């Protein structure tokens, strides 16, 4: 089989998998929620104490700060000169748009716009984005590898993949992470070229920081859902189900993973919690982690645009020949 045929098969495989999830998720949501008592959901939501909601906001803030540190790693990696006080707000705003409007809008397009307006070259922005994606998924694989390989998820007995399959997946993910760390630590060739692209390997220290930051962000996201669930919730299991749901969300490319997260949590945890408590926790999670930061990010974006325009004008005035100045 030729390379072109293999590539075509992979593309069609991805398309079929996407269609499968797009059909499966609404069906699951309908089947699982058609008998849902929405009065119980409302009672569960109104039953959250002010202390719980305040702690939830703190967890959200910590997660967004951790994510902004991805771009601080990018600053170190690319050696650009923008100060942290400019980098971190850009990263937080882009993260909020990324979560709600997919990676291409928030993670890519908005980053290019804001960073280039602050004076960075497109190639530098590309390296920052690439390192951020690698940080996110390296942390994901490390965390998922530990959770899956140690069988820390309490799944229903009817689940198709089974604990053995999930455990093998965990071992595979840990092997990938270990390989990445080994390459960063031991490779003598620090720049790898492929076609018209080149990749500069991070140092081993930077790779370890990627691992820690990526894993910390996923752990904080799960901690928010755990906080909103009943007290008998098992945190490693909640974390594992969140990691599984994010894979499904990445495959479908649905903005904000709308419906995907809910379908996976309802399918995998309905044997542990009532549907009303699960739906209440997930609605609270979306409100605190997606919608509230998006409202703040919209305001912050306007401020960043205005500030970037002002800084650019100052830079142009400073570089203008004296004879051209008024």
Q: What is this structure's SSE topology?
A:
Blueprint: H1 3-33, H2 38-46, H3 50-78, H4 84-101, H5 103-117, H6 122-149, H7 162-186, E1 191-194, E2 197-200, H8 204-228, H9 235-252, H10 260-269, H11 275-319
Antiparallel strand pairs: 1-2
Helix pairs in contact: 1-10, 2-11, 3-4, 3-6, 3-8, 4-5, 4-11, 5-6, 6-7, 6-8, 6-9, 7-8, 8-9, 8-11, 9-10, 10-11
Q: What does this 3D model show about the protein?
A:
The protein is globular and about 55 Å long. The chain has a two-stranded antiparallel ribbon with strand order 1-2. It has about 325 residues and is mainly α. The longest helix has about 45 residues, at about 275-320. The mean pLDDT is about 85. The chain has helices at about 5-35, 40-45, 50-80, 85-100, 105-115, 120-150, 160-185, 205-230, 235-250, 260-270, 275-320; strands at about 190-195, 195-200. It is built from 11 helices and 2 strands. It has one domain (about 55-310). Helix content is about 80%, strand content about 0%.
